[in-house]
Amino acid sequence: MKKILSLLLALLLLLPASALGTEDLNPNRVLINPACTLTADYVPADLVTLNSVGLKVSLAAISLDRQAADFAKSMVDAMAADGITNYIIVSGYRQYASQERLYTNKVNTYIEQGYTDADARAAAATSVAVPGTSEHQSGYAIDISNTAQGGTLSGNVAQSTVGIWMLENAPPLWLHAALSGGQD
């Protein structure tokens, strides 16, 4: 039953914003992607720092929407109940300008390797979300790692105790994509 409810929730998240009405955009109910973007000035209304709700973070300023922070806290509490405490959150809410810097840096890396501008942008978009299309800007996305990796996403998080627990216990479909190399 739990898996069916998770699948239904995942399918609801895939509805385009037009199906939900964009006048009351609530990012935790809309998939943010190239077809449903956030404006450069969008900032979640109720951001809280994750360390203020008792979560381990690599930087004190990492924040999320309050509701997402509560969900994240519940998840790591469940993880801890199973003996997994070596998690660390390495990213949360990200401003449009920050996402723009990440994307531009990746594009420039490809250009330095000899890619054309168009090819560099296309290649960059496979690993870094184009500004306005990142769920991090919604305040509802985190990147989580394990402390053995020094608070980074390098290495293979999916094969760590944290990643294995999340694959087995955190049911949303997008989690599997994120652990196997989805966009940042």
Q: How would you characterize the overall build of this protein?
A:
The protein is globular and about 50 Å long. With 184 residues, the protein is mainly alpha-helical. The chain contains seven helices and four strands. Strands 1-2 form a two-stranded antiparallel sheet. A two-stranded antiparallel sheet has the order 3-4. Residues 1-23 and 173-181 have low confidence and may be disordered. It has helices at 2-13, 17-20, 66-81, 96-112, 117-124, 161-169, 173-179; strands spanning 47-49, 63-65, 87-91, 143-146. The chain is 40% helix and 8% strand.
H/E element sequence:
HHEEHEHHEHH
Largest sheet: 2 strands, antiparallel
The number of distinct helices, counting runs of at least 4 residues, comes to 7
SS-based class = mainly alpha
Strand content: 5-15%
Number of DSSP-assigned strands: 4
Radius of gyration: 17 Å
Query: What is the arithmetic mean of pLDDT?
Result: 79
As residue ranges, the low-confidence spans are 1-23, 173-181
Spatial ordering of strands, largest sheet? 1-2
- Share of helical residues: 25-40%
Euclidean distance between termini CA atoms:
31 Å
